[in-house]
Amino acid sequence: MNQNSQNNQNNRSNQSNQNSRSNQNTPSGQNNPSGQNNQSSQSNQNSQSNQSNQSTQSNQNTPTTPSTPKAPVTFLPQHGHYRHLRVYQVTEIIYDITYYFTQHFLSRGDRTVDQMVQAARSGKQNIAEGNQAAATSSETEIKLTNVAKASLEELLDDYEDYLRVRNLTQWDGQHPRYEKMRAYARSKEFSDEYALKIGQMSDEEIANLCITLIHQAMSMLHSLLSTMQKRFVTEGGIKERMHKARTGYRQQQDSRLEELERTVPVLQQQLAQATAEAAEWKAKYEDLKQRALNTYQQQKEEIERLRKEK
After folding, report:
1. How far does CA 202 lie from the centroid of its chain?
2. Taking residues 69-96, what's their average pLDDT?
């Protein structure tokens, strides 16, 4: 009886010691639900705190994304096609009417025929060539536009001479048809039907019509030359635009290089920090893994020993 009592006491003592060792070897809170809740809550708080700190630190250390360099300033300005210019359209009409006029009212052997047709053609063609040259040479554009103006002035003299030597009337502001002729020459109706109308006109009417059109074209060319002059003063010529474009591009490249040079050290620091953090987390993982394996091994040995004692 005494022996059995002593054996029971020894068994209870061994079991108590084993439980004590198990609690010591088992991570805190493993056998206690309350301890598990506290540990989980504390782990979540620590995780959130670490994430918040990492996010704040990441935002502080993250460099600004380098901006993409802008396209260099173009030095070849785009002009509208010369056929869209109203002054070109008017000079084209002048050429057509002049050709008709010389073929119907001047003798074939008259040198004035060729002079008038060439002057009308020069007025039209130099506007076109000047517009096309504008992209690479403001000087050429201005020169050719001025040549067009001079050609029209020469043609104007030929029409005035024609009327004067033949004792025909040159219409001025006092003539009853003058204002109507000016308004008609500006109308879209005239642009659409002039080829048909001139066949119904006399030489005096056609000459005065062309004089009116030439005055209108010369006025538009004068405004066009003023615009070219202002553009040249404000924007400069092709060489200045080329220099400006090249200098602007170099400045953009230099700014880009400086920005990258400022960014690279920050990125290197972030990479080193991330590498260190990764190594730290790896060490913690290995430690936790080893502790879990040790606990598992101890509990396994304890289970085998208890089985043997039975």
Report:
1. 57
2. 79
Q: Give me 232's structure tokens.
A: 């040249």
Task: Give Cβ neighbours of residue 213 (< 8 Å, ≥ 6 apart).
Answer: 90, 93, 94, 97, 185
Q: Hey, what are 51's tokens?
A: 């994430």
DSSP run (H or E) holding 67: none
Angle at 220 between CA 216 and CA 226, to 5 degrees: 150
Grouping H, G, I as helix, E, B as strand and the rest as coil, residue 175 is: coil
Look up residue 199 and give its DSSP letter: G
Contact 309, 15 (CB under 8 A): no
CA atoms within 13 A on the CB side of 45: 6
The three-class DSSP label of residue 109 is coil
Separation between Cα atoms, residue 273 and residue 277, nearest integer Å: 6
- Count of Cβ atoms closer than 10 Å to residue 144 Cβ: 22
- 87: nearest Cα among 220, 193, 227, 219: 220
Say which amino acid occupies 179: E
pTM: 0.57
Other C-beta atoms lying within 10 Å of the C-beta of residue 53: 10
Q: What is the pLDDT of residue 220?
A: 95
Q: Do 259 and 66 form a contact (C-beta atoms < 8 A)?
A: yes
* Six-digit token string for 290: 């080893």
Return mean pLDDT, the chain: 80
Tens-digit pLDDT profile for residues 261-288: 889 898 999 999 999 999 999 999 999 9
Q: Give the number of residues written for the chain.
A: 310
Instruction: Return left, alpha or beta for 145; rule: phi > 0 is left, psi -120 to 50 is alpha, else beta.
Output: alpha
